[in-house]
Design brief:
CATH topology of one domain: Alpha-Beta Plaits
Order of helices and strands: HEHEEHEE
Strand order of the largest sheet: 2-1-5-3-4
Length: about 210
């Protein structure tokens, strides 16, 4: 005889009981795996590791001068400014002054110059003597009388004959005498103006005897 209770019931209740137990065991195992994975992730992977310091470098590569305590940014230094600097960037060129060159006096061949010597000293023959000196030098010259007896000697020139008058003054030993333009009224310097008509230089001998 078969003892009651030792064998499974014929209705399959034993099989259902074993299947339920297996399912519960699988669920517990899966739960344990999930818990272990969570603990592993929190503790072993991301929990205890020190966080990497956040970089403070500027990704643009530009250095902030304010980060250095030794850099003085209180006031910019203008390296372009200095003594003599101007606000205008365009250099100003200095004004160039062109020297005025006086015209060179024109002299002529002495044979083309007519000179009259007027005696205002009162010494007879003096005008003729000085006139002869000019003739010897090549000038066309005559001796005449002055309008009076001037205290100083003088030499006068027609327009364009200033240099020739200076040469005549030198010939007569009076290089220091400055030639003057010939006056319009020749009667103020010679006794007979008609005698010097067409003459270029008139020498008036005065009391100072600088021209003879």
């Amino acid at each position: 005889m078969t003892a009651p209770g030792r064998y499974a019931a014929a209705d399959g209740s034993l099989a259902r009981s074993g299947g339920n137990a297996a399912a519960r065991g699988s669920a517990l195992i899966l739960l344990a795996v999930v818990i272990g994975f969570v603990l592993l992730w929190k503790g072993g992977v991301g929990g205890d590791s020190a966080a990497a310091p956040e970089s403070t470098a500027d990704p643009t590569g530009v250095v902030d001068p304010g980060a250095d305590d030794n850099v003085d940014t209180s006031e910019p230094i203008d390296v372009g400014a200095g003594e003599g600097a101007t606000d205008d960037a365009t250099a100003v060129e200095p004004e160039v002054t062109v020297p005025v060159v006086p015209d060179t006096p024109v002299t002529r061949p002495v044979a083309e110059v007519k000179a009259a010597v007027a005696n205002g000293v009162g010494v007879s023959g003096l005008a003729g003597t000085q006139s002869q000196l000019l003739q010897t030098a090549g000038y066309t010259s005559i001796g005449i009388n002055a309008a009076g007896e001037p205290p100083t000697s003088a030499i006068y020139f027609a327009a364009g004959y200033e240099a020739d008058a200076a040469g005549i003054a030198t010939e007569l030993g009076g290089a220091a005498v400055v030639p003057q333009p010939m006056p319009t009224d020749l009667s103020t310097i010679v006794k007979t103006p008609s005698e010097v008509d067409g003459f270029h230089v008139i020498v008036v001998l005065g009391a100072d005897r600088t021209l003879g």
